[in-house]
Predict the structure.
Amino acid sequence: MKLLYIVPKIKNAGGVARVLSVKANYFVEKFGYKVHILSQNEENDSFFYDFNSDIVFHNMILNGNAFQFLKSYKKQLNQKIAGINPDVILVADNGLKAFIFPFIINTKIPIVFESHGSKFIEEKELNFHFTTKFISKIKYHFKDFGIKKYTKVVALSKANLKEWNIKNGIVISNPSWVQTDVYADLRHKKVIAIARNSYEKGLDKLLHIWKEVTKKHPGWMLNIYTDDFDCLNNNVVDLGIASTVSVFGFVKNIEDKYLESSIYAMTSRSEGFPMVLLEAMSFGLPCIAFDCPTGPRSLIKNEENGFLIPNHDFEKYIAKLSILIECEDIRIKLGKNAKQVSDNYSVEKIMEKWKEFFEEL
């Protein structure tokens, strides 16, 4: 079996790169598949995650205006597909070009869309102007139209699949790369968050929430691991919370950071299937998140293994985060249940589903 993954980036520290490193390595090492990965504009970048040396990487250079970009994208895609000649093509891209993809390739090879984000993901805040609302509506209709042209759609949760309202979709969740019996002891006065500093990840919301929480709990620290740490750190200083917030770049030994923490906090505006929640649960951390579309509700069962807060309800988020900070017994109970949830997403279980999917396809 020869697979071709098409992604915007594979060398960064993002969640898609993380999960593809786990899956691609498993395909090669356990199933004997041949795996090719095609990414864009990262020829000189270094890999953040480890990939098996048998995986073949390709890079497209895309630039210019929209017309030039699309023309180059189409030409290079078809050249790469013809040269690689895979059995299956998988597209893991939340951008609009992913929904153009089925219309610009010249192949009869099965094409699969991996939905790693909400259908309603936005890169910046939408205003209520008529033109903006109209453009968004057109964009969502175009996504609906384009996704139906794929051979199959793999969503990461039932809620994510329901957003698309399609007949050619199945659910295969992300696997957890964490394989350990070590638990965080949940006694450190540290809250952890790991996310890109982008609009959809909502770190700006987390800082405003923490500003209120730290007034009552000044002995606790919020540790944020992100990409644009200088910019986020400036926001921390502007809010006057620098004494209780530390901002770091992404690190490879992130498991150590989970084990040093007692709570995982997420304030995303949209998610697909958040790997960071699954990772945190694997280390026995109780999690708190807004019930945004669509990922957190697939993992967090409210008051069983964490707290799922009604979307945009800042007051309730502050109250529940304060409970986790104040009550060690609640942290331990929810963390223990969280660990059990993560066991359902073992690499072995999830990858067997992928093997069956490819064989049927």
